[in-house]
Amino acid sequence: MGTTQLESVPEPKYWHLRTVLSEALDSEFSVGEILPNERDLAARFGVARATLRQALEQLELEGRLQRRRGVGTTVAPPRVGVAVGTEQHAWPGAPEDAWQPVDSAMEVPPAAVAAALETGSDDTVHTVRRSRTSHGQLVATELLYIPAASVPDLTAIDAPSGAARARAVLREVQHLPLEGQDRAVELGSARADDARDLDRLPGSPVLVVTTRFFAQGRTAALSVATYRADTCRLTFGDSPGVEIHHTPEQRAS
Amino acid sequence: MGTTQLESVPEPKYWHLRTVLSEALDSEFSVGEILPNERDLAARFGVARATLRQALEQLELEGRLQRRRGVGTTVAPPRVGVAVGTEQHAWPGAPEDAWQPVDSAMEVPPAAVAAALETGSDDTVHTVRRSRTSHGQLVATELLYIPAASVPDLTAIDAPSGAARARAVLREVQHLPLEGQDRAVELGSARADDARDLDRLPGSPVLVVTTRFFAQGRTAALSVATYRADTCRLTFGDSPGVEIHHTPEQRAS
DNA sequence: GAGTGGTCTAGACCACTTC
DNA sequence: AAGTGGTCTAGACCACTCC
């Protein structure tokens, strides 16, 4: 029984470890349970701590584990479904909107945003910060860019900043006739400020949802929303969405 | 000029490196250009190779770099927009469908899939493998699960496997009245086989799009599509989508 | 065979949470 | 103060591509 394993396909140690741990999570652990610490686990599997960490990182990416510095590693609950495709054809700030206004100010947007809004690269636009909560946890932050031309009646009549100003901007934008919207999802890594808001480390994987709102033949508003990739499953239908674990390695014939 | 930087927020080296490299990519490199190798870069920045690699991994996650073993690290082109939300209300295999059938067989699906399809956990279902190409490159693989009950006229009349069988299954499913669909997007890591198809390493980040197709009050088909997260931006409108680089750290006041 | 990125090690120290 | 995960180092060897 010396050499039970086959040498032909030497899969990386961390990948094999990931599989072993994944199966252990399925069968021997329950949600919220604390795993042994990394040094113990590494010793138990006979690998260096860095190798073990590579396996844990994979599992965290897949939403199976949650790690917190100074605390430990716990078994993560299933990802929460977060509706993104609902409120179709409604402006941000509409009554059923899931977002909470946080702050607003006039700012010069990043160059790519200015290009999409067709504003000059030095022009300021209304920038509204919002956040979104699900099951009592902050799951996303958003930056909403609205050119001054989209809300002409708002010229300096309201508070200069703060949540009140954010609400005023959102109130104004409802008056425009919304002609359509389009949306894109891509992988990103959390900027330092988003990471802080989302209680993650800088560089954590996030899902970036970019939404363009069209009115009067132009892009009248642009939203860049940053969702925690570890805890969120973005749903686009009206139903809550399927919970499919795509991880399993086996595929029975 | 000794201590220009402030010590108060000692950001990790790899994060700072990422920022420096990111700016260098913007200003001094063009798409497709080859970067110096990791050992040289690490020496140039005075860090260990592992630390440099942490920074490169971030940039690769963000779609800025492309690394290939044995070849080198190159500057990645902007992500390609891949339409996911079009073909709304059409079965897979409809004429305008972007997917290429690859193979098909009767298989026992993973437990979570069986649950969504409401089949017994030991029942086989039609499993169609398809792939999707964009700009000459394979960007996604798909597993499409169709319970035998959804295609009653297909009982063993066609080829036992292969692309021809896949086409036969897809042809049959068109006959059902499609009542609706819903969709979810989440982050995953590539399984060994998907990784091979997508020309990535096992564990590479992927965007998993799960689509349920409803007919006759049941889930009549379920698609699990795996997109390369580094090269793809999933778009959901009818227009090609915005190309927003969310990476920039600065946010001018 | 030379050069690349990918894996792995064994250690050290740091930042953070909890007691 | 003790214990956790996060960062970093300096090396080694492996798998792969290309010449």
TrEMBL record, chains A, B:
Pfam families: GntR, UTRA. SMART domains: HTH_GNTR (SM00345), UTRA (SM00866). Residues 11-78 form the HTH gntR-type domain. Gene3D superfamilies: Chorismate lyase-like, Winged helix-like DNA-binding domain superfamily/Winged helix DNA-binding domain. Keywords: DNA-binding, Transcription, Transcription regulation. SUPFAM superfamilies: Chorismate lyase-like, Winged helix' DNA-binding domain. This is GntR family transcriptional regulator. It comes from Streptomyces pyxinicus.
